[in-house]
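Usage

Read records sequentially. Each one opens with the input sequence:
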Amino acid sequence: MPDVSSGELEANAFDPEEARAIAWFLTGLRREAIRLTKKYRRLDEHELLLLNGPATQDTDSDKLTMLDAIPALVDVPGEAEDMVFIQEALLLLTPQEQRVVQATILDGFTEREAAKELGISQPVVHRTKERALKKLRKRFALDKSAGK
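and closes with the structure output:
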C-alpha cells in the first residue's frame, strides 16, 4: 500500500462548497442554453427568407440559394390561423350578415358607408350587425358553468 501523507488526502478530499459552486454554475449554463434555444426557435419561426430568385413549382431547388433571412414583421402562421377561424365563424351567419360583418368590422367601413355600398339602409346594417355579433357571441362565449 502506497504511503499517502495527510496533506495529499486533504487535497483530494471532497469540498462541498466547490461542488455547490460547480452545480450552481452548471445549472445557470443549462438554463441559459434552454433560454437561447427557445429564443432562436421563435426567431426561426418568424423569419422571411431572401432567395436569389422567385420560388415557383417549376424552379429547380438546386438553383435557389438563400441570400439572407430577415425577421418577419407579422406572425404569418398566427395570421393564417386567425383567417381560418374568421372564415369558419362567418359560415355561421347568413349571407347578408356575412356581408355586413365583412364591411363594418373586417373592412372597417362605418355603418353608413356599408349601407351605401350594400344598397340597404343604415338602420338595417346596424340591426344585421348586432344580430350577427349576438350569434357569434352565443357560439363562442365561454361556458362558465362548464368551467371552460
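Summary fields computed downstream for this record:
- Residues 28 and 34 are 10 Å apart (CA to CA).
- The chain has a mean pLDDT of 74.
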